[in-house]
Design brief:
Blueprint (H helix, E strand, L loop, with lengths): L24 H8 L15 H24 L4 H26 L1 H17 L4 H45 L4 H4 L15 H51 L8 H49 L3 H42 L7 H14 L14 H25 L1
Family: Belongs to the insect chemoreceptor superfamily. Heteromeric odorant receptor channel (TC 1.A.69) family.
Organism: Glossina fuscipes
GO molecular function: odorant binding; olfactory receptor activity
Length: 405
């Protein structure tokens, strides 16, 4: 692949696991696009230009966007049009700085799971489970990446298409051109030089929003799929343990399963500690963001803008669904261990001391590993609740717009 030559080559990077095609593929490309390497403890920021220039392009546009929203605060359509990309930019900035601040913890957790994946190579059945989960991660991450990049392209090209349409009707192209990102600009963008400056600035903004969110959300889903895979591998080992010696299991086998469960639960808890702040921030913003984009769809006029807002709405919804589905998946896979303990063994053949150990193991596994957002649990019911709440916000915005008219 042509872009492969631009990927970082860290000296402390771990080898790729055999038998896992496209393992961590999407994540390493999206991180590389903003100058980061999540596989390296020695050099997590491998390109400071890629890391800083787009970020500064976004950061310097935040105040002009807030100024635009304040200037047109009486126009609900213009305010919501400015706030939707602003909130997505805030999310991208928060994820970027959170990764920089917690890079040691994130990279160490990645390396722990990566090493566990390398150890699975010796067992074909366990490798098949790991391969399936990583293939799911690849498909979802790639789909999300394509959708987000399509939205970014539409954000930049929709104003050009609209201006071209009006130019064909006899108006001047530059006079009909609206900026891709609604803000108060310190220069006249309706001149050739101003147009170039506008698109350079807006392109940096869009670039950082896309890859700032794609990278962090992508590594979140990779963690999620691989931790879930190790819970499934544990269940497979419990089934194999129950068939050992015709049902006469040994203390060594039981202790190995208990230790694997303890290690996987610790990974899930560490994963939760790292990501719960970002889950909370995403939850706090998603309701308003979905409502604003849906309002734009309901009240927008230009077809090109409608297509952009529809694509943007799908991206935001997928982004939040990723967190909720991930939390539900960890919860379900951790709870399924308890049933596997109960179903895998011929209890009448198990020694009394081992039976007590298995009962304690089963009771512990009945406590779910949850992904929390500080005050709540991220799962599919939360996703439905956010959609319902966003629906209430949409009704409020439509009412406000009707009252203004």
């Amino acid at each position: 692949m042509f872009f492969k030559q631009w990927l970082p080559r860290a000296g402390d990077a771990l080898p790729s696991p055999n038998g896992l095609s496209r393992h961590f593929t999407v994540q390493q490309y999206t991180f590389a696009a903003i100058g980061l390497d999540p596989k390296s403890l020695q050099r997590p920021i491998f390109n400071k230009i890629l890391a800083l220039v787009p970020m500064l392009g976004l950061l310097t546009l935040v105040i002009p966007m807030i100024g635009y929203a304040s200037l047109y605060k009486s126009d609900i359509l213009k305010v919501t049009d400015a706030l939707s990309p602003l909130w997505e930019g805030v999310l991208a900035l928060s994820k970027f700085f959170y990764f920089i601040w917690n890079r040691q913890k994130i990279i160490q957790l990645l390396r722990k799971i990566w090493i566990k994946n390398l150890e699975v190579n010796n067992n074909p059945e366990e490798l098949a489970i790991l391969a399936k989960e990583n293939h799911r991660d690849y498909l979802f991450s790639l789909t999300f990446c394509i959708n987000v990049m399509t939205t970014g392209a539409l954000a930049l090209t929709a104003p050009l298409m609209i201006a071209t349409f009006y130019a064909l009707k006899g108006e001047k192209f530059l006079k009909a051109l609206e900026p891709p990102i609604k803000a108060i600009y310190p220069f006249d963008f309706q001149t050739p030089s101003g147009l170039i400056m506008l698109y350079l600035w807006n392109s940096l903004f869009v670039h950082f929003i896309m890859f700032g969110n794609l990278s962090f959300d992508g590594i979140f889903f990779w963690f999620n799929c691989n931790i879930a895979a190790h819970f499934r591998i544990l269940r497979l080992r419990l089934t194999c343990a129950g068939q050992e010696n015709g049902g006469n299991i040994t203390k060594t086998t039981v202790n190995a399963c208990i230790n694997l469960h303890r290690q996987t639960v610790e990974l899930a808890e560490e994963f939760n500690k790292i990501f719960r702040i970002n889950v909370f921030i995403k939850f706090a913003i998603s309701c308003l963001q979905i409502a604003c984009l849906a309002f734009q769809l309901a009240r927008g006029k230009e077809k090109a803008d409608q297509i952009f807002h529809f694509s943007f709405l799908i991206s935001v919804s997928l982004q939040f669904f990723l967190y909720c589905y991930g939390g539900q998946k960890i919860k379900d896979e951790s709870l399924a261990v308890s049933n596997s303990v109960y179903e895998s063994f011929q209890w009448q053949n198990v020694e009394t001391t081992l039976r007590k150990s298995l009962l304690i193991f089963m009771i512990r596994s009945q406590k779910a590993c949850n992904l929390t957002g500080v005050f709540f649990t991220a799962d599919l019911p939360l996703f439905l609740w956010v959609l319902k709440t966003a629906g209430s916000f949409i009704t409020m915005l439509l009412t406000l717009a009707d009252d203004k008219n």
